[in-house]
Amino acid sequence: MRFLSSSILLSALCLCLQCIFAVANTEIVNFEVSFNEDLFFPHTSNWTVFKPGAHEQPWTLLPAPLHTLLDAVCEKDVATERVLNCSHELWLVLDLDDANWRTYSKFTLRISWPASSPVDFSIRLYTPSDYQTYLTGQPSRRTDPSHSSASSVPQTRRRYVRVRAVDTGVRTPSHASDNTSSSTADQVSFIVIAEPLYFGVFPASVSPVLVWLAVIVGVASMIVPTVNRYLGRIAAMAQTEMEGTKEREKDS
Question: In this structure, are residues 106 and 30 in contact, taking their beta carbons and an 8 Å threshold?
Fold first, then answer.
């Protein structure tokens, strides 16, 4: 009985955790951060910066046409100059050097969008060195940590985020009837959330729910044994009464 009760509590906990992330379609990237060489890119000063207190924001984006490979969205020939204002992608900055986030080494970045929107998303993170390689097409010259001047090179945990979207073409009947004359994808609304992972596992936003569930499980673990004992006594009394009734019937 005790094993059954514990199984029920654990099942309820797992179900609640699944419900937290099942509200909409979600693309999630969990990552670990470390210090890298700090490089400055003037054009990124206009990009939205995610940091504590400003780690969640809604966006709209026009998905790339149907049948476009995600890895090919907004990609240009290596010989041509890369365009940073492609309408099918979004660039963001994660300020992981903020004092309130500096103590965390693991983070999660997720995108949520309505299940009715036929879109696939891709998330890719870049260190400043990686981003320089993306821009130039050439491997960046990383500073050798063993070099005597390495300690003087500015270091950062900042990350650049590239979000890309592509149309999957699977629309609901009502949506399809409104767009019978056009195969062009509509803009999709989505939410981007960046936050640290507690203990390297739990997103900060779900920690209050986890605490609440832990309290419920704790209280239930104390109440269930008492309830089991009470029900056991009632069952024993009922069994005794039934046995007495059978004995009386035999005597009569």
Answer: yes
Cα of 193 vs its chain's centroid, Å: 8
**Is residue 236 left, alpha or beta, with left meaning phi > 0 and alpha meaning psi from -120 to 50?**
alpha
pLDDT tens column, 47-65:
999 999 999 999 999 999 9
What CA–CA distance (Å, rounded) separates 136 from 78?
Answer: 9
Which of 215, 214, 220, 185 has its CA nearest to residue 202?
Answer: 214
pLDDT in tens, 12-37: 555 555 554 455 689 999 999 999 99
